[in-house]
Write a structure and sequence with these properties.
Blueprint (H helix, E strand, L loop, with lengths): L1 H29 L5 H8 L48 E4 L5 E6 L2 E12 L14 E12 L5 E4 L3 E5 L4 E2 L15 E4 L4 E11 L4 E6 L9 E4 L3 H7 L13 E2 L14 E4 L5 E6 L2 E14 L12 E12 L5 E3 L4 E5 L4 E2 L16 E3 L4 E11 L4 E6 L9 E4 L2
Parallel strand pairs: 1-11, 13-23
Antiparallel strand pairs: 2-3, 3-4, 4-9, 5-8, 6-7, 6-10, 10-11, 12-13, 14-15, 15-16, 16-21, 17-20, 18-19, 18-22, 22-23
C-alpha cells in the first residue's frame, strides 16, 4: 500500500510539471518580437501630456535622413596621348603660365601646385650666383599644398625642365640672392603649404617646352606644365622625338677586339663628330662626341692635373631614345690607354670652357650635353672610350682609337 502511494505521488508530480511547462511555452509563443519602430518608440522620450488630458499622446519619432555620401574627389585630368612625354594615365598636364594651378594624385597622396610667378632672365644680387656667358636664369616661384595623408619633403630636385630643342636641365643648386624668394626645400605636412623658387640655367636662345614635377620616382604619376604651344611644336616636328630602338655601330662579336665582344656591344671610331648607339632592352642610348681635347685646361685653380699628367676631355651629347627616364653619372664611363691601363673620370671637373660634367636625369626623347674628363699620364694615348649605362647587362658602346 505504501509503495502504491509513492508511485501515485511521483506520477502526480510529473503531471504537474508537464502542465507548468506547457503554460510557459504557450505564454512565450504568444509574445511577438517588437518591430524596429516599437523599439524606437520605446527608447524615444514621450511628450508631456496636454493639460486636462488623461491619456498622454505619443509622438512618432522623426525619421532622420541618411547621411549624404562623401563627395568623390574630382578625377585628375588625363594625359594628352599625342605628347611624347607624360603618357601614363596617372600623369597630369597643365599650361605653363603664371597663375596656373594643377593637382597631381598619386595614390592617397595629393599635391596641388600653383605657378605664382615666372621670370625669364631672373637676376641674383649675389656676385657668385651669375649665369655663364651665353646663358640666362629662368625662375619659377611655386606654391605647393599637401592635400594628402603623409608629410613630404619637397625640393627643387623634384623638378626638371625640357627645352624646345629637346635638352633636359636640372635646377640650379642652392639659388641665392633672388628677390623672388628662397630655394624651395621644405617638409610639408598633411594640409600644409610651402612656397619657394626653382631656378634653371639655360642658353639664351632656348625656350622651355615643359616643366615637370615628379614627387615620387618610384611611381608613374607626374605633373607637366606644358608650354602653350607645346602640342603644335610636337606636331610640327620642332621638338625631339624618341628614335627607333636600333643600335648603331659595328656589333661586338664582329669587332675582332679583346674587349666588347658581346653581340649587344657596338664599336665606332674615336673621332670628334662620331655618334653611336646601343640598345638595352627597350632602352636606347645614343652618344655623339662633339669634341675631343687632349690637354684640356681648367680655370679652377683647385682643378689641375698632377705633375706629369694631363686632362683628356670629351664633350658629349647624350640622347635618350628609350621608353623611360635614365640618370647619367660619371661611373658609366671608362678610358683605356694604349699601354693597357684603365682610368675613371674626374668627379670634380669644373672650370672647363667645354661645359659641365655630364650628369642628371634625362627623360624619354630628351637630350643632355656635358663633358667627361680623365687624368692620364702626359705621354699616354687612348685605346678606347667605353660607355656602359647598365653594369647588369652586356650592352656597351666603345669608341675605338683608329
Amino acid at each position: 500500500m505504501r509503495r502504491f502511494m509513492k508511485v501515485l505521488l511521483i506520477g502526480a508530480g510529473g503531471l504537474l510539471a508537464i502542465c507548468i511547462l506547457l503554460a510557459v511555452l504557450i505564454q512565450g509563443g504568444g509574445s511577438e518580437k517588437p518591430t524596429p519602430a516599437q523599439v524606437a518608440g520605446a527608447t524615444t522620450p514621450t511628450a508631456a501630456p496636454a493639460a486636462g488630458s488623461a491619456t498622454p499622446q505619443l509622438h512618432e519619432p522623426t525619421a532622420t535622413p541618411p547621411p549624404q555620401a562623401a563627395q568623390e574627389p574630382t578625377a585628375a585630368p588625363q594625359a594628352t596621348p599625342t605628347l611624347p612625354w607624360g603618357t601614363s594615365k596617372e600623369d597630369v598636364h597643365a599650361t605653363l603660365v603664371e597663375g596656373q594651378t594643377a593637382e597631381l594624385i598619386d595614390g592617397k597622396e595629393v599635391y596641388r601646385l600653383t605657378l605664382e610667378k615666372i621670370v625669364d632672365g631672373a637676376t641674383s644680387t649675389n656676385s657668385f650666383q651669375q649665369p655663364k656667358e651665353g646663358n640666362r636664369y629662368l625662375l619659377f616661384s611655386i606654391l605647393i599644398e599637401n592635400a594628402g595623408t603623409r608629410s613630404h619633403l619637397i625640393s627643387a630636385s623634384n623638378f626638371q625642365l625640357r627645352t624646345v630643342a629637346g635638352f633636359d636641365y636640372e635646377p640650379v643648386f642652392a639659388p641665392v640672392g633672388f628677390t623672388e624668394g628662397d630655394a624651395l626645400s621644405q617638409e610639408i605636412g598633411p594640409g600644409g603649404k610651402a612656397r619657394g623658387i626653382v631656378v634653371f640655367e639655360l642658353p639664351t636662345d632656348q625656350q622651355p617646352l615643359f616643366l615637370k614635377f615628379d614627387p615620387n620616382p618610384i611611381t608613374s604619376a607626374e605633373l607637366y606644365f606644358d608650354a602653350p604651344n607645346a602640342l603644335e611644336l610636337v606636331q610640327s616636328g620642332a621638338t625631339s622625338q624618341p628614335a627607333a630602338a636600333a643600335p648603331e655601330g659595328t656589333p661586338g662579336d664582329q669587332a675582332g677586339k679583346s674587349w666588347g665582344t658581346s653581340k649587344n656591344d657596338r664599336h665606332v671610331p674615336l673621332v670628334a663628330g662620331q655618334g653611336g648607339a646601343i640598345a638595352d632592352g627597350k632602352q636606347v642610348y645614343r652618344i655623339t662626341l662633339l669634341a675631343i681635347v687632349d690637354g684640356a685646361t681648367s680655370s679652377n685653380m683647385f682643378v689641375q692635373p698632377k705633375e706629369g699628367h694631363k686632362f683628356w676631355l670629351v664633350q658629349v651629347q647624350f640622347e635618350n631614345a628609350g621608353t623611360s627616364s635614365t640618370i647619367l653619372t660619371s661611373t658609366e664611363w671608362a678610358l683605356r690607354t694604349q699601354d693597357g691601363f684603365d682610368y675613371e673620370p674626374e668627379i670634380m671637373a669644373t672650370g672647363f670652357a667645354e661645359g659641365e660634367v655630364l650628369s642628371g636625369e634625362v627623360g624619354p626623347g630628351g637630350r643632355k650635353q656635358g663633358i667627361v674628363v680623365f687624368q692620364i699620364p702626359q705621354d699616354a694615348q687612348p685605346l678606347f672610350l667605353k660607355f656602359d649605362p647598365n653594369p647588369f647587362t652586356s650592352a656597351e658602346l666603345y669608341f675605338d682609337a683608329q
